[in-house]
Amino acid sequence: MERKYQFDWDNTVGADMEQARPSLGPSTRIEVYRLFQFTLRDILEQHYGTEMADNLFREAGVMAGKAFFEKFLSDAKDAASLSAKVQDSFNTLGIGIFRVESAKEDNSHFIFTVDEDLDCSGLPDTSDVVCVYDEGFIQGVLESFSGKGFNVREIDCWCTGARTCRFEAKTAS
Ligand SMILES: [Zn+2]
Q1: Measured in angstroms, how far is the CA atom of residue 95 from the centroid of ligand 1?
Q2: What is the mean pLDDT of residues 119-147?
Q3: pLDDT at residue 101 in the model
Q4: Phi/psi of residue 101, nearest 5 degrees
Q5: Is the pLDDT confidence value at 23 over 80?
Q6: How far is the CA of 116 from the centre of ligand 1 (A)?
Q7: Which residues are placed with Cβ below 5 angstroms of ligand 1, an ion?
Q8: Can you give the C-alpha Rg of the chain in angstroms?
């Protein structure tokens, strides 16, 4: 298939933000990010249904997590330095406040939390988690780091009343 939009960091995100936005700088507001995300999500759901919309979002998250790993995390030597780098870059870029809540010694199972999450923090309560893109993102980072498959599911979300997003990651069997 011919692809017009094949993702590539330098060609679709941009390599030089100083040149791209000399006066406005590299930041925008969270409303703009959410406006984009939740309109796209609405349209995907209307066309393909909720489950497929979530799957597509998660898959895009995996792609993003892998690209993010290559860009910011690839010199992590072990799980501890990886989580320190994730925490750092998430802070610097305003993605959220990342913490490792628990980690099995063999790196087969993790619980992560993200406070003030870019996607959902402050949204009204619903009965369901909404951060499927983040699920994919974390999956992509872990898979790039370990070379193994991972399943990641959000088990608490701001939107479920938890006020923090909590993700469980397990190696895929
Ligand atoms: Zn969430």
Answers
A1: 12
A2: 93
A3: 96
A4: -90, -40
A5: yes
A6: 9
A7: 120, 131, 157, 165
A8: 16
